[in-house]
Design a protein that fits this description.
The chain starts with a helix and ends with a strand. The protein folds into 2 domains: about 150 residues, Immunoglobulin-like; about 140 residues, Cupredoxins -  blue copper proteins (Immunoglobulin-like), CATH 2.60.40. The strands form 7 sheets. Strands 18-15-20-25-22-23 form a 6-stranded mixed beta sheet. The protein has a 5-stranded mixed beta sheet with strand order 2-11-9-5-3, with no helix packed on it. It is globular and about 55 Å long. About 5% of the residues have low confidence. A hairpin with a 5-residue loop joins strand 16 and strand 17. It has about 350 residues and is mainly β. It has 6 helices and 27 strands. The structure holds copper (II) ion (2 copies). One copper (II) ion binds next to loops. One copper (II) ion (CU) binds next to loops.
Length: about 350
């Protein structure tokens, strides 16, 4: 009995020391062989359209603005609200336009849920509130991470209306969401794009020191006679963007780099929401130790230099920062880099 007691005390102490050492790390546990071995839920009850009083709150739930990643909600059901607003946004110095936005920004907020969670989603079309400045429009949402009837859940919502529907997260990964109202291309270049992260049931495998979300998108803009900017659908049809950005702002991480420490293991959640062009995502000075295509750890590649992401494609990239220095991350389709798809990671 005494020996057993001592063994358990020693085990507990070792466990406590180990967990203290790991406190700074973002840790998760998973048996990769079990990643796909769970029950999936297909479809859900009909979406509900309503005309409710629009309150002050425009977003709620496990949301954050990239490069930040929202905390997970530990519950079977997760409530998310993300209203559509028309608002003036800044893409580059002196370049503003009236965007159509999920939540408060372009791209919309990063959403994070977990496999098996039921997402109770609600979205009001608030474009009616700025009618004097930007014509109200029907809008919708298409979650690439959901398995539901698009004619029902992804239907267009009239200005002033609210849609509510549910879906269950079946697959882990990183997924695009966007407005699906015609002309879809137009709604996406007006800013209606975003990223959803679905975490495996037991978390993503392995430990990392820092995580960032990077959404790549294209802006197609033209200057009007009064000097202001508006969306250029003709340029979009020719796939000739004015800007290509990480998280919606021209070269923002050149001005304000992502800060890490030498030796850190970094995890990037990268989603190319397009809408037109591919991204060849690359980091100068390191290699990707692990690449999970579409963000699913089952789709693992090792030791990659550049990851090709088609429009609406994504990957989770894990890499080590080998020594102090400045590491450039970019779309290696170098015209896109010149148009803004470039940033810096500084390691002290
Ligand atoms: Cu829309
Ligand atoms: Cu789509």
């Amino acid at each position: 009995m005494k020996i057993l007691t001592w063994i358990s005390i020693v085990t507990i102490v070792i466990g406590m020391v180990a967990s203290c050492n790991n406190n700074s790390k973002i840790t998760t546990k998973t048996n990769p062989s079990n990643l796909m071995d769970y029950k999936k839920t297909y479809g859900s009850s009909h979406a509900i359209l309503s005309e409710e009083e629009l309150g002050h709150e425009t977003t709620s739930g496990p949301l954050a603005y990239a490069p930040n990643i929202p905390a997970l909600t530990n519950a079977d059901t997760v409530e998310i609200r993300m209203d559509v607003q028309h608002k003036k946004i800044t893409v580059a110095d002196g370049v503003q336009f009236w965007a159509w936005a999920f939540g408060d920004s372009v791209p919309g907020p990063v959403i994070r849920v977990q496999v098996g969670q039921i997402v109770k989603f609600k979205m009001s079309n608030r474009s009616i509130e700025t009618a004097r400045l930007s014509p109200p429009m029907p809008h919708s949402i298409d979650f690439h991470g959901a398995m539901v009837n698009p004619q029902d859940k992804y239907q267009s919502v009239a200005p002033g209306q609210t849609i509510s529907f549910e879906w269950t997260a079946n697959y882990p990964g990183v997924f695009t969401y966007h407005c699906g109202t015609p002309i879809i291309l137009e709604h996406m270049i007006y800013g209606m794009v975003g990223m959803l992260i679905v975490v495996p049931k037991d978390g993503f495998p392995g430990k990392v020191d820092k995580e960032f979300a990077i959404i790549q998108n294209e802006f197609y803009l033209k200057q009007k006679k009064d000097g202001s900017y508006t969306v250029d659908l003709d340029a979009a049809l020719k796939k000739q963007p004015t800007y290509v950005t990480f998280n919606g702002k021209y070269k923002q991480y050149v001005k304000s780099p992502l800060m890490v420490n030498a030796g850190d293991r970094i995890r990037l959640y990268v989603c190319n929401v397009g809408p037109n062009n591919p991204s060849s995502f690359h980091v100068v000075g390191t290699l990707f130790d692990k690449v999970w295509l579409d963000g699913n750890p089952v789709n693992e590649l090792r030791g990659m230099q550049t990851v090709l992401l088609g429009s609406s494609s994504s990957a989770i990239l894990e890499f080590v920062i080998p020594e102090p220095g400045t590491y450039t991350f970019l779309d290696h389709e170098l015209a896109d880099m010149e148009l803004g798809a470039v940033g810096l990671i500084i390691a002290k």
